[in-house]
Amino acid sequence: MTDSEGNITRRDLLRRGAIGVAGIAAATQTLRAAEHKLDPGLPTGAARSAHDPRNAATQGQVSDASIDPHAFLEQFDYGEVTRRPDGTVVREFHITAVDREIEVAPGVYYPAWTYNGQVPGPTLRATEGDLVRVHFRNGGSHAHTIHFHGIHAGRMDGVFEVVSPGESFLYEFEAQPFGLHLYHCHAIPLKKHIAKGLYGTFIIDPRTPRPPAREMVMVLNGFDTNFDGSNEIYAVNTVPFAYTQRPIQVRKGERQRIYLVNILEFDLINSIHLHGGMFHVYRTGTSIEPHEFTDNLMLCQGERHILEFTFEHTGRFMFHAHQSEFAELGWMGVLNVVDGSPIA
Fold first, then answer.
1. Which one of 27, 65, 139, 249 is separated from 187 by 20 to 30 angstroms, measured CA to CA?
2. What are φ and ψ of residue 238, in 5° steps?
């Protein structure tokens, strides 16, 4: 179904690629074999129930999303590190705004504005007290900035210091406070610059490290593919159903730490719900003591929290938005909990 101008509408976009009950018989043997190879325990062909939640995922693979969503989970950019004579650690980062068309669902391309050619931008990481220098160059077609959440001087706020195409700006500030932050473009119109993809995660670690854990970054985002002010696609790390089609492998008994950032535009509320377990919530990550123990968390735009949990049982457990429509349009994943070492 399309609108009057021939654009794919919100609730029909993913139906075009949905496997669904009727589509199971038409799925190729290659796709089934690839799925079975990723998880030999999965039934194939007619053995899969019509009610199997995996059938909600889109058929086919996204190959040009600007990031590999599985690799992105654990990619941290610590910058180029030097030290001042007084011992202060200096971390230098290089970010360029670039216009780039990215694939946000199989065969669906979106004209994004990106940091370093990817959505989300790279995950920047420092330790509280470090001197952070971000060399920003605008290689795009519109004026852009970088606004960092956290504490810094007014001249480093990325609001009034608008960078025109072809120009550059140096952001320099002390990393504080420790916690989970984000960065995004703050040029006008703000909602367009965020919706088009100019955002990323900024982690400031405490001087005394948190306990060891398997760490992952999950940025909750979406895409308005027909520009009607409403998202047609919802995702974690840009690619809808990425972690349903290929579950994230975790170890039973291993502490999991998720850096969760909500940057969804056009919808007031987003959420995460974990099956088979509960998580400790460190709100904004600015405390080493948890604030809540739950399995469902609501977030407004710009809200971000650190989640920590450990699975007591093996098996496949879903995580998804508890707005059902978001889940059915892409914001859904699976954690495959195994004994022993994680599966690569």
1. 65
2. 80, -40
**This prediction's pTM:** 0.87
User: Which residues, other chains included, contact 182 with Cβ-Cβ below 8 Å and sequence gap of 6+?
Assistant: 149, 199, 200, 201, 202, 261, 263, 302, 304
Identify the pLDDT of residue 9. 58
Looking at residues 75-103, what average pLDDT do you find? Answer: 97
Are the C-beta atoms of residues 95 and 118 closer than 8 Å to each other? no
Alpha-carbon distance of 281 to 292, in angstroms, equals 5
Name residue 298's amino acid. M
Cβ proximity of 130 and 140 under 8 Å: no
Amino acid at 87: G
The yes-or-no verdict on residue 225 having pLDDT over 70 is: yes
- pLDDT band at residue 7 under the 50/70/90 scheme: low
Can you give the chain as a three-state secondary structure string?
Answer: CECCCCCECCCCCHHHCECHHHHHCCCCHHHHHHHHHHCCCCCCHHHCCCCCHHHHCECCCCCCCCCCHHHHCCCCECCEEEECCCCCEEEEEEEEEEEEEEEEECCEEEEEEEECCECCCCCEEEECCCEEEEEEEECCCCCECCEECCCCCHHHCCCCCCECCCCEEEEEEECCCCEEEEEECCCCCHHHHHHCCCEEEEEEECCCCCCCCEEEEEEEEEECCCCCCCCCEEEECCCCCHHHHCCEEEECCCCEEEEEEECCCCCCCEEEEECCCCEEEEECCCCCCCCEEECEEEECCCCEEEEEECCCCCEEEEEECCCHHHHHCCCEEEEEEECCCCCC
Task: Kindly tell me if the per-residue pLDDT of 151 is higher than 50.
Answer: yes
Candidates 2.40.160.90, 2.60.40.420, 1.25.40.10, 2.60.40.10; CATH matching 214-338? 2.60.40.420
* Burial of 306 (C-beta count, 10 Å sphere; 0-12/13-18/19+): buried
Tokens 């360029």 belong to 96
